[in-house]
Design a protein that fits this description.
By secondary structure, the chain is of the alpha+beta class. About 30% of the residues lie in helices and about 30% in strands. A hairpin with a 4-residue loop joins strand 14 and strand 15. The protein is globular and about 75 Å long.
Length: about 350
């Protein structure tokens, strides 16, 4: 990317929107830093670009300290989201700031194979049917600020900026991302599409299970009901592997003995079932909820249009530095044209 003097001025002095437009939506343009006290730089296309001969308020090491806090806190809070990212169940959109919806298609199974001795018999030449769906791509964000005096005090004392405020902002954004995946946020609708999560997706399978506090409940009760739930998924041609997520209320029962005298816990016994890839407790699941989901990209994936990052701009003549932690990470639960989905939500009556 080549810059003329007018472009450089726009990158350094324009409004946040002007700078984003000039940099083709690259949010790094809102992350200016001082490099060895010799001017203000931003990183674009992997290269440090000088945008002003004056020194930026934040040094590169300040941004590194902020980003470290962002990564540490973000990973701590994104458990279910982390499972999808860790398994590669993601769809990445470059320059996600320039996209407001993701449009995808579902395909019907229209063709039928035939048997014949000479191969001359014509099979039905049906064309698959396609249906378009839209997934909104909103930004999740939280704001904080430092005064110019905070920054000067940090620089004069040689100590890094206090990142506790940023950690709180990251925690809030991380929590929002996790709760969106779990379906614990209000349904977000835009551009003819809606965002759903595990517990509110309209096409999910459901099952009523026995509460562990019910009279006569034992570990085998839960195992039998989970096997029945697995059959529900197999009946709609969803064969696993499955991840099982439990509300925290289950922990004391999962970690108790399966039956008296049996040398394993209920959690360990359930983990031996074919197709059950893992069992995990999710802090944000409620009551006695259980999620069983096929961990394949045709059922669930995270649409990553912007990794979590921190942006900065000035206010009050530069006396206040505003920051925004933001990300575009949206869950996409998928079904086929027969309305079958590899997601089951179990709850007690």
């Amino acid at each position: 990317m080549k810059f003329d003097r007018m472009t450089i001025n726009a990158l350094a002095q324009g409004s946040p929107l002007d700078r984003l437009l000039t940099a083709n939506g690259d949010t790094n343009v809102l992350r200016p830093y001082s490099l060895n006290g010799k001017g203000t730089y931003v990183t674009l296309n992997g290269k440090a670009v000088l945008i002003d001969n004056t020194t930026a308020s934040l040094r590169k090491e300040d941004w590194i300290a902020l980003d470290k806090a962002l990564v540490l806190i973000g990973r701590k809070r994104l458990s279910a989201v982390g499972d999808l990212n860790g398994r590669g169940l993601v769809y990445n959109i470059p320059d996600g700031m320039g996209s407001t919806v993701l449009q995808t298609e579902t395909q019907g199974d229209a063709m039928t194979a035939q048997l014949s001795m000479d191969g001359l018999r014509r099979s039905p030449n049906d064309r698959p049917l396609y249906e378009l769906t839209n997934l909104p791509l909103p930004i999740m964000h939280a704001d904080f600020s430092y005064s110019a005096r905070n920054i000067l005090t940090s620089r004069k004392s040689g100590t890094p900026l206090d990142t506790s405020t940023m950690e709180l902002a990251v925690r809030q954004v991380s929590q929002k991302t996790e709760q969106l995946l779990l379906g614990l946020e209000s349904t977000y609708t835009y551009g003819g599409g809606s965002i759903y999560g595990y517990t509110n997706y309209p096409s999910r399978l459901t099952k009523t299970i026995t509460a562990p506090t019910a009279s006569g409940w034992v570990g085998g009760t839960l195992l039998a009901e989970l096997l029945a739930a697995r059959k529900q998924l197999v009946d709609v041609k969803m064969y696993g592997p499955y991840m099982l997520y439990f509300a925290p209320a289950w922990d004391q029962y999962l970690d108790a003995d399966y039956v008296a005298g049996y040398p394993k816990t209920t959690r360990a016994r359930i983990g031996e079932v074919a197709g059950f890839e893992g069992l995990k407790t999710l802090d944000y699941l409620e009551d006695n909820d259980i999620i069983m989901i096929q961990m394949t990209s045709d059922v669930i994936r995270m649409v990553n249009a912007m990794p979590m990052r921190t942006l900065q701009w000035d206010e009050s003549g530069g006396l206040q530095k505003n920051f925004k932690v933001m990300t575009i990470q949206i869950p996409q639960i998928r079904k086929d044209q027969d309305d079958n989905c590899g997601l089951l939500h179990a709850s007690s009556a």
